[in-house]
Amino acid sequence: MTPPPAPLRILAIGGSTTPMAASERALRIAAEAATAAGAEVTFVTGRTLMLPIYDTESKERTPATSELVAAFRASDGVLIASPGYHGSISGMVKNALDYAEDLRYDDRPYLEDRAVGLIAVAHGWQTAVGTLNQLRQVVHALRGWPAPLGVAINDSAGLIGEDTAGTDAAVARQLHTLGEQVVSFATAHRASRA
Prior knowledge:
Elements: E1 9-14, H1 22-36, E2 40-45, H2 63-74, E3 77-85, E4 88-89, H3 91-98, E5 115-122, H4 125-141, E6 145-154, H5 169-193
Parallel strand pairs: 1-2, 1-3, 3-5, 5-6
Antiparallel strand pairs: 3-4
Helix pairs in contact: 1-5
């Protein structure tokens, strides 16, 4: 008898130093849809993202950075949510993504063969859209497969609630679609490798 396939593993990265900030809440709504689609989600969010600056000259890793690299390595897909800080990706999120460099010599280097869902949250459309575009560029550089839908949210109107029910219906629908796309693409890619 053939054992059932292992569930897809999705790594969810994002948020800010404020626990359950708008970007983390958006990430969790997308992850909710990924979980409903059958994936296992690991979160690296909020203050957990306060990692040492990625150092190309050192192989030493803290327990937290070792866990992040292991989560990257084990993932079939990634969800990333960044607040827009001064027109750009937050330094914490970018630093976490820099740790994907530790996968450069793997059979699947960087984010290769991984579906990636992108979310940017800011107080204004210009920064939200600019941050989303920058996330997409970083993921391309890391050889990831950005999902067709990217979600840019202008949260100056308080569109993200504490959960799906408290979030603007159109925004919640986009976030759920994004989580579903990451699982769908990861499933298709796993099947193509089998």
